[in-house]
């Protein structure tokens, strides 16, 4: 049990640490912020559901590509400059998106938003660890708390602001990120984290490792399930912006709890490949149930929140496994893995809308269930290639934190 002195040590941090933590909350809010306003954007801009879903696709596709280069950029311009450039890009593109009148323009601007978020998220943890007082453990607790708050609050804020106008969440994000930019520019003096120069080709060459490649492909299939649940569900639910915000607030809270608290407990007791294959199978069942109850909003809400519980475990354990399967630097392995898995996330939302147009709202969930089940089979079949990731025992705190942050950045 933590003592009062431990708590005082945790909260007595330099102002720069709190500035980065605040910016981290806002950055992770962006994951679910647009979810509650997708139907409103579709209605107000005369966009099809498939076009509205491309707001996720452009964001995730550019984020995935950018992850291949963020370590290279940070190693050359420094973490502080990387953070500020990332924040500035989000401010610019979120403001422009809120001012736009066509869905095609917003889709393009969300791509720029994804680039900014990739630069910020990939650098924030190392910056907090370098600047915090009381050791790395305190820094990691603060970062995980910021991450959990952002994931949970994003949909809720998006729903609240979206009830005023679908433009409001974009302007709200831009305003919060502008405050974070000024705070970091003033309070973060110099680079608290060292520059680590990574060769430009390193993330590409990393995918030559069989175990890393297997995990990346399994994660690509898994992300089809993840983003079918997250990005397509607002349409069959049929709720207003507040209702959608509350639904995905529950999803975000569930995901944050299991990623931070449950996943470490499971991997300290069971082999990671067993945790992954079993949880993927449970997620496939959850999605299959979703295909059966999609016409009943209350039941679909339960499916979404249960999915959040499972997604939190999978995000963290998959990224832990990526860090353990090779001898490569963790930043390189994570970048390579993330770039591939984001392809699944980018493809899933428009694919789900297209499938629903063919046969109804049940089909996207059924196809997602098959994709996730295939990921479970791949993990089981590939266990000989993943023997290294099944070492028992608790992870070092920095490995655990990076797994949570990179895993939930999707």
UniProtKB/TrEMBL annotation:
It comes from the Bacteria. The chain crosses the membrane at residues 16-34, 54-74, 81-99, 111-133, 140-164, 170-190, 211-230, 242-262, 274-293, 299-318, 339-356, 362-382. One of its GO terms (cellular component) is plasma membrane. It is found in: Cell membrane. Pfam families: MFS_1. Keywords: Membrane, Transmembrane, Transmembrane helix. It is a multi-pass membrane protein. One of its GO terms (molecular function) is transmembrane transporter activity. SUPFAM superfamilies: MFS general substrate transporter. Its main location: membrane. InterPro entries: MFS (IPR011701), MFS_dom (IPR020846), MFS_trans_sf (IPR036259), Tet-R_TetA/multi-R_MdtG-like (IPR001958), YfmO-like (IPR053200). Residues 16-386 form the Major facilitator superfamily (MFS) profile domain. This is MFS transporter.
């Amino acid at each position: 049990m933590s003592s009062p002195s431990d708590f005082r040590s945790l909260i007595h941090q330099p102002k720069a640490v709190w500035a980065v933590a605040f910016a981290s909350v806002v950055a992770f809010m962006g994951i679910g912020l647009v979810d509650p306003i997708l139907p409103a954007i579709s209605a107000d801009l005369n966009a099809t559901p498939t076009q509205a879903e491309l707001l996720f696709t452009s964001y995730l596709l550019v984020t995935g590509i950018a992850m291949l280069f963020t370590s290279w950029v940070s190693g050359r311009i420094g973490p502080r400059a990387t953070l500020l450039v990332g924040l500035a890009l989000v401010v610019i593109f979120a403001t422009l998106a809120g001012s736009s009148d066509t869905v095609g323009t917003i889709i393009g601007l969300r791509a720029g938003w994804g680039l900014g978020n990739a630069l910020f998220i990939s650098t924030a943890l190392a910056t907090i660890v370098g600047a915090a007082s009381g050791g790395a453990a305190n820094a990691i607790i603060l970062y995980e708390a910021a991450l959990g708050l952002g994931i949970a609050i994003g949909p809720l804020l998006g729903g609240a602001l979206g009830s005023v106008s679908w433009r409001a969440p974009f302007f709200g994000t831009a305003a919060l990120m502008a405050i974070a930019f000024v705070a970091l520019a003033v309070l973060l003096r110099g680079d608290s984290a060292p520059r680590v120069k990574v060769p430009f080709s390193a993330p590409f060459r990393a995918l030559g490792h069989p175990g890393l490649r297997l995990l990346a492909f399994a994660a690509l299939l898994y992300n089809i399930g993840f983003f079918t649940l997250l990005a397509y569900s607002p349409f069959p639910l049929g709720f207003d912006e507040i209702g959608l915000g509350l639904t995905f607030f529950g999803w975000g809270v569930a995901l944050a709890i299991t990623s931070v608290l449950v996943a470490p407990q499971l991997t300290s007791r069971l082999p990671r490949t067993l945790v992954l294959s079993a949880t993927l199978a449970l997620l496939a069942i959850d999605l299959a149930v979703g295909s059966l109850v999609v016409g009943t909003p209350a039941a679909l809400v339960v499916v979404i929140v249960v999915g959040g519980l499972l997604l939190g475990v999978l995000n963290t354990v998959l990224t832990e496994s990526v860090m353990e399967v090779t001898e490569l630097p963790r930043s390189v392995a994570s970048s390579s893995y993330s770039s591939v898995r984001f392809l699944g996330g980018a493809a899933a939302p428009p694919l789900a809308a297209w499938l629903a147009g063919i046969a109804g709202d049940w089909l996207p969930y059924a196809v997602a269930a098959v994709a996730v089940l295939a990921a479970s089979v791949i993990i089981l079949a590939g266990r000989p290639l993943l023997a290294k990731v099944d070492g028992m025992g608790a992870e070092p705190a920095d490995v655990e934190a990076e797994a949570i942050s990179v895993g939930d950045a999707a």
